[in-house]
Design a protein that fits this description.
The protein has 544 residues and is mainly α. The protein contains 22 helices and no strands.
Length: 544
Amino acid sequence: MNYTSLEFLLFLAVSILAYFLFPVKKYRWTILLAASYFFYLFAGWRLVGFLLFTTLSTYGTGLWLDHTAKKSKAIIKEKKTEWSREEKKKFKDRVKVRKRLIMAAALVVNFGILSFLKYWNFLAGSFNALFSFGQGSGLPILHLLLPLGISFYTFQSMGYVIDVYREEVPAERNPAKLALFVSFFPQIIQGPISLYSQLSHQLIEPHDFSFTRMQHGLELILWGFFKKVVIADRAVIAIQAVTPDYKEFGGTTLLFILLLYALQLYADFSGGIDISRGVAQILGIDLVDNFRRPYFSTSINDYWRRWHITLGGWLKNYLFYPLAMSECFLGISRRMKETRLGKTAAGSHIAKVLPTSVASLIVFLVVGIWHGANWKYVAFGLWNGGIIMLSTLLKPLFDWTLAKLHIRASSFGFRLFQMLRTFLIVLVGYVFDIAPGFRGGMDMMGRMLTDQNFAAGWTEIRALGLAKADYLLLILGTLVLFTVSLLQERLAQKGQGEETLRSRLDKKPMVLRWGLQFAGIMAVLVLGVWGPGYDPADFVYMQF
């Protein structure tokens, strides 16, 4: 059920009415659960078993961890006067190991299912190619289907398991309530990946209808539709005309498609998240923001703090910190400080930041692999992680260079340079997104650098399936997107959030507010990519 379909709009209207008209407020959350499972079953009922397995294994693991923790505390309290400090410590260590094994079992099984479905054919194909197995021999290539949103609900569920293990949240006793947390339909397609502590209570608490929340939610949905059907679905027509047979096009066209992809990807992904957040907002639920104007970033680190924020937050909390603060990594840092190199200023800095640098590289390798089963995504992860690692290790050198050149880091000119430099680094990573494979990505970059012919490129660009009016609409849409983003960025720098932009609109005269809303609706209906024969492009992250 695509967000841009009439079926979804009808489903949404019925779900909202049923939720707010349900007479027993205490159990309104059951309407959300029913709607979520209807949404998932409509998308593909044959694969709902995977969602149920993750839900039940998460529920059981949470209870098991909670029971183990409470039982150990009761034993410690009972033996308080009998045990020595050493005996108490040994018992706690045994309990900790037991809890780790319980948690590890859940992580291995659930991430194992995700990895098998998503990566088996890639690994089997790579293995067969490496050892020159012919067709029909070696590891089998299986016909596997990827359940809708499996990455998102797996990451979200396993985050809950880790939080229960850490005793940061209590285990949920009601399996239906946990099922709602795992399957909440506005975020099942492409996130955001929410924390249990942030979302669960919002789902269960009854919410009364609010005209203001409905208005803001509809405005956010309309903004998401504008990004998706006016910008992203129009841009993807040209992109899909080039990327399958990129060798037929010159470097100028490939560079244009790369820039167009940067626009399409952002409009598609952030537009989908806006729709998700808008739907949830109408229901009285605040989903966390997943984007914060990433193309205004001044470093690749800053970019990843603004792009797919919830994935970055999950990896930071559950992978980066455990790695960087592990005894192994910290031990390497301590041993390096004791060497002759570690006594120097440069060596001391490297020893200090090495754990975080290596942990960052590993995290971004995971980010790359998460994006897809292909060596090009491994390269994508290593490129981003490598840049972050080098920038961390070489920061004193960069600071020294700026001081020697008398460049103020806070000046507008230098910030603009940083934004352009960061965008260029991001574009290199995007090449691996649009290329058919790693070698194709390297070939595309070579063509962009060596085969620039603007006259020939313009001729090719005009024949990509878009008319002049389409390109004009893309330019105008980009200007609207940039203007809104710039206003949001300025408000953010003043300590005000994105919500302030919509709140400020509320204070404008009714004629202006309704005029902008009407213009947005007409832009989506008239300028959006609709009509007979239109095959709506799936959201980029829909099958992640």
